[in-house]
Amino acid sequence: SFIDLPTPSNISAWWNFGSLLGVCLILQILTGLFLAMHYTSDTMTAFSSVTHICR
User: Fold this and answer.
1) Is the Cβ–Cβ distance between 52 and 38 less than 8 Å?
2) How high is the pLDDT of residue 42?
3) How far, CA to CA in Å, does 51 sit from each of 29, 46, 47?
4) Contact predicate 38/49, CB 8 Å
5) Are 27 and 16 in contact (CB under 8 A)?
6) How would DSSP label each residue in 28-55?
7) The Cα angle at residue 53 between residues 50 and 54, in degrees rounded to 5
């Protein structure tokens, strides 16, 4: 069963929480880089950039 597995005493629920935080951080970095690649400061081409991302 899962309860009787021989695990070290220093592994707790905080390891799972830290892994989840790491996944969220990597996801935010990747989506931020993706949005930064499509950034434009011109107001005329900003709308076409948004429609390009949504397609």
Assistant:
1) yes
2) 87
3) 22, 9, 6
4) yes
5) no
6) HHHHHHHHHHT----HHHHHHHHHHHH-
7) 85
Give the pLDDT confidence of 15-47 residue by residue, as tens digits: 888 899 999 999 999 999 988 888 888 888 888
Q: Check residues 3 and 43 and name the one with the higher pLDDT.
A: 43
The token pair at 41 is 């400061």
Tokens of 21: 């935080």
Which of 32, 30, 33, 37 lies closest to 52, judged by CA? Answer: 37
Contact 25, 14 (CB under 8 A): no
Evaluate whether 45 touches 38 at the Cβ level (below 8 Å): no
